[in-house]
Amino acid sequence: MTPRFVAGRIGFYTLVAVILAFFTVPMLWLVVAPFTANPTYEVSLKDFTLANFQSILDHPYALGSLVNSVLLAVGTAVLVVAFAALSAYALSRVKIPGRDGLLYALLLLSSIITGTAAMVPLFQLAVELNLIDSQLGLILIMTGGLLPAAIFMLKDFMDSTPKSYEESARVFGAKPLQIVLHVVVPLVRPGLATIAVWAIANVWGNFLMPYLLLSDVEKQPAAVIMYTLYTEGGQANLPLLSVFGLLYSIPVVLMYLFVSKKYGFRFHGGIKR
Fold first, then answer.
1. Number of neighbours of residue 34 by Cβ within 10 angstroms
2. Which residues pair with 236 in a beta bridge?
3. Alpha carbon distance 39, 169 (integer Å)
4. In 3D, which of 241, 268, 255 has the Cα closest to residue 157?
5. Biggest CA-to-CA distance, the chain
6. What angle do CA 100, 181, 139 make, to 5 degrees?
7. CA-to-CA distance for 250 and 258, rounded, in angstroms?
8. 185: which of 110, 228, 237, 270 is 20 to 30 A away, CA to CA?
9. How far from each other are the two terminal CA atoms of the chain, in whole angstroms?
10. Domain residue spans in the chain?
């Protein structure tokens, strides 16, 4: 091996180590800081204590906000998966002029008109429909924002499923909705899991729309409540933030482990042929 090759390998592994440290150190802090009496920005376990968890339990809105986040994320994911599955199936099976152009237009509009750009018209729409301070209204608005991209992604899974199964079901008298529920859905479960995880992740970390549409603090999700865990001087309350951040991360980690174990994140549409 030449010195140039050795130097290149050393540089490569050094870069990898730096990148791993960049992502690993915050994770270590998230695990260690909640159990430290006076946590700082250093990763060190000093003065082990569980008092920080008691402080979160005493907080009037912390645990309730986590429940709100679960309700918003799961509710939005259910609607997105249901509507995207029906729409993607229809666009996959029905041949209409301009179908592909419509799909790309939906994806383009969903990318350009983001939550920030649509903030004012969405707020006015929510006011007109009496959806201000309504968790259901927030779920419907976030569902509408996620649907175009979800339909675009799920259509590829629908295209890869064999149509012969559907034709066999029609021979035995199955209706269109029965075909979708009992034939198509089982074949595209990895795709539905992909959309569900993607929708939950988008809603779980969403701050703008809940902050804009939910004025009642008892209805606000954890992403909004987290910004209230500061002292009167504007400094981060690290004991509360560290514990709340850990609790806030646990549902996402559990979801990842469940989906990874079930599907291995090998999301490929259709079935093995």
1. 23
2. 230
3. 62
4. 268
5. 73
6. 70
7. 12
8. 110
9. 46
10. 3-49, 60-263
Return the closest-CA partner of residue 150 out of 200, 107, 100.
Answer: 107
Q: What is the 3-state secondary structure (H, E, C) of the chain?
A: CCHHHHHHHHHHHHHHHHHHHHHHHHHHHHHHHHHECCCCCCCCCCCECCHHHHHHHHCCCHHHHHHHHHHHHHHHHHHHHHHHHHHHHHHHHCCCCCHHHHHHHHHHHHHHCCCCCCHHHHHHHHHHCCCCCCHHHHHHHHHHHHHHHHHHHHHHHHHCCCCHHHHHHHHCCCCHHHHHHHHHHHHCHHHHHHHHHHHHHHHHCCCHHHHHHCCCHHHCCHHHHHHHCECCCCCECHHHHHHHHHHHHHHHHHHHHHHHHHHCCCCCCCCCC
- The identity of residue 179, as a single letter, is I
Instruction: Output the CA torsion 130→133→139→143 (10° steps).
Output: 60
Beta carbons within 8 Å of 229's beta carbon, 6+ residues apart: 236, 237, 240, 241, 244
Identity of the residue numbered 180: V
Residue 251's contacts (CB-CB under 8 Å, 6 or more residues apart) are 66, 69, 70, 204
pLDDT digits (tens, 9 = 90+) for 18-30: 888 787 888 888 8
Q: Which residue has the tokens 């209805």?
A: 219
Query: Tens digit of pLDDT for each residue in 50-108?
Result: 888 888 888 888 889 999 999 999 999 999 999 999 888 888 887 777 777 777 776 77
Predicted TM-score (pTM) of the model is: 0.81
Q: Give the CATH class of 60-263.
A: mainly alpha
Structure tokens at 230: 């500061």
